[in-house]
Every structure is written in structure tokens, then in C-alpha cells.
Amino acid sequence: MTFLTYLISGLALGSVYAIIALGYTMVYGIAKMLNFAHGDIIMAGGYVAFFAFTKFGLPPVLSIILSIIFCTILGVVIERLAYKPLRQASSLSVLITAIGVSYFLQNSAQIMFGSDTKIFPALLTEGSLKLFNGQLTISYLTIITIVTCIIIMIGLTMFINKTKIGKAMRACAEDKGAAQLMGINVDTTISITFAIGSGLAAIAAVLLCSTYPSLSPTLGSMPGIKAFTAAVFGGIGSIPGALLGGLLLGVIENLTKAYISTQLSDAIVFAVLIIVLLIKPTGLLGKKENVKV
Amino acid sequence: MLKVNDLVVRYGMIEAIKGISFEVADSQIVTLIGANGAGKTTTMHTISGLLKPYSGSIFLDDKEISKVPPHKIVEMGIAQCPERRRVFASQSVEDNLFLGAYTRKDKTEINKDLENVYALFPRLLERKNQMAGTLSGGEQQMLAMGRALMAKPKIMLLDEPSMGLSPLLVKEIFDIIKDINSQGVTILLVEQNAKMALSIADKAYVIETGKIVMSGTGQELLNSDDIRKAYLGG
Q1: In chain B, which ranges are continuous DSSP H helix?
Q2: Is the ipTM of this complex over 0.90?
Q3: Which of A93, A125, A128, B2 has its C-alpha lying 20 to 30 A from B51's C-alpha?
């Protein structure tokens, strides 16, 4: 039974990684860049939800919606101001810029909110579900987290595969020049991608801060790196890959903490990543593209 | 329909197009022929707005389009079927065709054009749910042409439609180009296969290292000794 408990909480943690990983993987797939500031958008989303709830007394749902709206706009603004001017620049310049944006956001938060840790309120729910005569306890938060992840995955997959904008996004991911020849506005498509990824980061922020209720300017960096790892693990650019990578990472991390060592858990997680990449350099679900001439 | 005036295109310091001018009249087939690296594809990309000219101008009817972004150019009526097809391999044949109509909103008209494309290319109808990446080279060429047609263009730019295809398929593709033209679509065709291109062209231009060195009707160039020696194999 305890194994099951660890497994389920690992899946919940993995769900959060997966939601964050979607932001990395979609942006990489379409803009071909690694947005290292993505983790700090989570942090921003956490603070917005925190202040909306505690300072302005908004109801939880409104606080979450406000956080989503704020992060969506923040993501689009960052893309327009920092990344769009570098569309023709080398990928190294873009990468360094993204790291710069990351530090900019962290330091701005530090100046505005101080570097002390704030306690994130119980926005979502407390309490838990008891199964098998109380032998298995699953918190409602865990259930909400996993269900949210499932809904997001289904919704996003349908959006990408069924809608006109989604198909245009896939076209841009495959061949930007050809997409432009179809009349697709690539800049708009990239903005939409950043908007979706950043909106999802806000949802991840609320889930993450509810699970680990402490808020600090650097809160986004570690989950950001883990989720980036999950995206690479699953095959960067692939949406099912982000899900698989996130869930596996969460489960491995939690089981390692439970059965091997808390201190070594991150080392083991990254070791698994290295092994997977040695065997399959494109990640678990990453594809090597075949071009037919 | 389309008028290119003294167009210069540079890649950094290298001048790929060194001041070319040509004209495509309404409902004609006009071809640019020339060897690899002559600047044909660069010209096509510049007309479609993927590249910005260093100087010179491009007019569609009476509008200067050299500073218009590519997605707007499609809306204005210029569709391109690019070199090496560039179909969206991971999407179905039908989704590729609908992407061709991305800028349009007239649903019933789009469906009518889809039927027209399927009538021109029955093979695409048979394979409409197949991933585009699994098609043969010839089928991908048909898909790329059908996709460009779905934009309902006034003028269609065709870049090397014969590349990598068997002589039989090349003939089929060129017959379809004539069909498309007879439906009222103006054609600008870029080809290394000079013989085929000249045989269907109303007007032809020969491009060499970024400059137009000769022009005439398709028939005139087919009969020219210089062209025969340089491009038609004696």
C-alpha cells in the first residue's frame, strides 16, 4: 500500500512536470528555441495567485484565472520584446537572452516582493480520500492535479490535431517557410504558442505551490529544469513525449526519495536522463525525420 | 499580372540576383529557365516575400508587393508550389490541402476547389487520409500543386515541378500545368528541364548567374542554337 501511495504522489508530481514540460516542448517545436525563462513564469504565476487571494481577497477560482491571464500576457510580451527581434540570430544568442530574461524575472520579483519565503495559502482544497479502510490515503489535491493534467493533455491534443490554428502550428513546427507560403502568419503562431505555454505555466504554478506551499523568487528554477529534463526525456517537440517524460520523471523521483535516498534523488533522475539519451538521443518519443526526395 | 523591375537580391555580401526584370501577362505560362544556382529559386522566394529585395520592385497588377509579408502575399493571390515540394509530412493529404486554403474563409467555395483538386489529381483523393510523408515523390508533387491551387491564386509559382520524377510522370505533371492554366490561373514556372518548360511556355526568360541573358517565346527559344547547345543537350 505504501508503494501505491508513493506511486500516486509521484504521478501527481509528474503531472505538474508534464504541464510545465508542455510549455518547453511546444515552444521548442515551433520557435526552435529553449525558453529558459519558462520556469520563472511559473514563479510569476504563483505570486499573482498569492496576492490575488491573500491581499485582494479574490475567490480561489478568480485568483487562478487572473494568474493564467497574467502569465499568458507575460509570455507573449517576453516573446515580442526579447525573442522576436532575434528571429534571424544564432540559437546561442537566443539561449543567452532566455537566460537573461530568467534572471531579470527572478530579480524583479526579489525587488518587488522581497526574497523571504511566503506561505502559499490552500487555494484549491484540503482533505483527502481514504480507501481500503484507511490504508490508502490520497489527498484531493493529488486527484485534482492528475485530473487537470489529463484534461489539459486531451484538450491540447485535440486543439493541435483538429483546429485550424492547431494544424497551422504543426505546419510551422515542420517547415516555417512552407507554412508562410500557405499564408500562415508565423509570428502570430509563435505568439499563440507562447500564450498557451505560459497559461499552462500558471496552472502548474497553482498546483505546485499548493503541493509545496512556499513562495520565493527562485521557486520556478528547479521545477523548470526538471520539466525541461522531462521534455527532453520524452522527446522534445513531442506533446505525448512531454506527458510521458513528466510522469516518468515524477514517479522515478518520488520512488527514489522513498526507497533509495532523498539526497540522491535528483542525481538519480538526471542519471536516468543521461542513460536514456545515450540509448535514444531523440528522447523516448522523439522522432528522427525522414525526408523523401 | 506580375511585373519584376530591376530586382536585386543579396545574401549578406553575395549578390544572388543582379538586377533582373521580367513580366508575366494575364493567363500566360511564363518560364524562367537556367542552370542550378542561377538564381531561379531566389527569385521565386522574393516574389513570395520569403526574401526581401535589396533593390528593385515587384508589382502584382498595380500593387508594389516587395515589402508585403509572405502571408499577405498569398492573400493577394500569389501561391507558390515550392522546390522539393515541402509538403507537411506529418499531416494527412487532405489537411495539407486545407492548409493551402488557410487564408480563405469561404467554406463552400473551398470545398468546391477541393473537389476540383481531386478531379485534377485522382490519386490524392485515393490517399486523402494518408500522411503526406508516405506519398511517393510524384504524389507529393501533385499534393504540393493541389495545395497551392487551394489558395485560389491568380498566379501560381511553380518551382522545379519535374525534379526527381520519371519522364512519364514529368509529362503528366506538365499536362496538368496546362490544365490549371486553361482554368484561368496564370503560371510562372521555374525549371531546369528546359525542353519541357519551353514546350508549354508562352514566354520564356533564360537566367544565368543572377542575370537574364535571353528572352523570347517558348518556341523561339526552343529553336535557338545557343539554347540548344547550353540547355537542351545539342
Answers
A1: 40-48, 70-76, 93-100, 107-120, 122-126, 137-149, 167-182, 194-200, 218-223, 225-231
A2: yes
A3: A93
